Predict the structure.
Amino acid sequence: ASRLACKSPVRLGFGCSFLEVLLMEAFSFAQSPYPIRDDIPQAYRNFWQRLASPGSWWTGDERVAIAQESRSALKCQFCIDRKSELSPYTFKGEHSHDGKLPATAVDAAHHIITDQGRITRAWIENNSDSGLSKEAYVELVGIVVAVFSIDEFHRALGLDLEPLPEPMPGEVSRYRPAHISEDMGFVPTVPPDGAVGNESDLWEGSRGANVIRALTLVPDALRDWREIAAAQYLSFQRMTNFVQDDNRSINRMQMELVAGRVAAINECYY
């Protein structure tokens, strides 16, 4: 609960901040053609509050700007043209953006949305040399995938996207886990036996699978993804339960059939 506490100095009665009051009305799903379980909008509201807050490597302003770029990428003409090229790294041009973020961050957000299958280690290393550190990149990835997941939920229901939250002031923490490894992927991660101390909650008794470890260079990015995934899919603990889940409208076999089909369409590595 303390991690979700609002960092804004502007607070109203009953201990609520102005942002918290606004979020009470967010994600109402009043126009949804289907009933929505309560845990889904609550997970979205929680993330919206964290999105507006300063993170480990990006300010609240920058985090909301990253979220906006994740939406703008789908209509970016440069991304559309680059996608059709044999290599995304030889095609020259620029993304249209409002200048709130460095060009490398804009390109990263757009690349993750429109052409993630062609992201390479060399590209990430080059971005790091150009000022987009691996820590900042991982936090950016966490924001982009969380916002995209929430937005796709709305698109699937034919609903308008939720307006992005107003950023909150504050300084970044520059927090980095004490135990990291470079044994997998393109960025450092917390190793399977490294979820201790401040990171002891990261997989909460479940095994540290590679796909779970991917965001752990910025632990809060994993925590954000974990809460949204638990609402939209399953918690880490429930992933090992292969029987009917009474809190879902479809059974586990049906869930995995949908998940497998989506993964195939998205050319998911895992």
Confidence is low (pLDDT under 50) at residues 1-15. The radius of gyration is 19 Å. The first helix runs from residue 18 to 23.
